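Dear H.,

Thanks for agreeing to be a second pair of eyes. The structure we're designing against is below in token form, covering all 126 positions.
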């Protein structure tokens, strides 16, 4: 099973979770970590590593709000240590999160590609 960690600034992760609860439900493999104003990068990294310890050897997809920002950097540094086990993406939309909540098949890299493609395909102009 691939575990998914949604990470972001302020209430991003909490808001994503609440959105999923209303629309599609939240899968047991989805976890949510917010970087608050009070958190340092060390505190954020501790939160992430504590959660990773619970996952054993399962693969992990980090889904961050903003590329290059603090949550992304923490996730990317962890991913760089083991790219077979971890993958980091940023900028996913609600449709991608709903798909991740409902379908968790394949390896971490296939799920990342699927989520990215869903985000691209679900943006429209009316």
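And this is the sequence the design step returned. I haven't edited it by hand at all.
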């Amino acid at each position: 099973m691939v575990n998914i960690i949604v990470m972001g600034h302020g209430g991003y992760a909490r808001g994503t979770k609440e959105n999923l609860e209303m629309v599609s439900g939240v899968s047991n493999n989805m976890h949510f970590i917010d970087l608050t104003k009070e958190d340092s990068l060390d505190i954020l990294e501790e939160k992430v590593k504590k959660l990773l310890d619970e996952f054993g050897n399962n693969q992990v997809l980090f889904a961050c709000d903003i590329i290059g920002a603090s949550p992304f950097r923490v996730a990317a540094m962890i991913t760089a240590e083991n790219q077979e086990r971890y993958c980091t993406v940023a900028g996913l939309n609600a449709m991608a999160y709903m798909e991740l909540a409902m379908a968790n098949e394949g390896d971490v890299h296939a799920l990342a590609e699927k989520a990215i493609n869903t985000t691209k395909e679900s943006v429209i102009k009316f």
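Two observations from my side: The helical segments are 12-23, 41-54, 70-81, 94-102, 108-122. DSSP finds five helices and four strands in the chain.

Warmly,
E.
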